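Page 42, continued from yesterday. The earlier attempt failed because a stray header line got pasted into the input along with the sequence. Redoing it now with the clean sequence only.
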Amino acid sequence: MLIRLILLFTVLPLTELYLLIQVGRYLGAFPTIMIVLITGIIGGLLARSQGLSIYSQIRMDLQNGIIPTDRLIDGLFILIAGMLLITPGIITDVFGFSLMVPEFRGWLKRKLKDSFKRKLETGRFQVYSNYHSADWRKDDDF
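This time it went through. Structure tokens are written below.
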């Protein structure tokens, strides 16, 4: 897991920088900067509108007594998409805009659920916690 994080935070930004330099060489500095700014603005607006839509759907589900698990996952994907879209770069923009497409989110959600299900069935999914609760049945005062 540590290696994946190191790659994510070193290789991805370097690749993004390389691609932006190449686009800058081809289009020029000003158009490249404008592309980064415009995708950030459009991404922020899309994330806001879709996030508000998901939020209202979650509220409706809760009012109707439905547990909104799928809607919460959609909300998480939209949050991630918004963060990717305001991050300068081409790879992050492509993946961020992909997460804004409901069909792609549905496909990714199914893959994620299948992965969790396989891990739970094989016992490879574990949750660790440092939380230690006191035994509420003990009564040390008396």
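Notes: The chain has one domain: 14-122.
Reminder to self: strip header lines before submitting.
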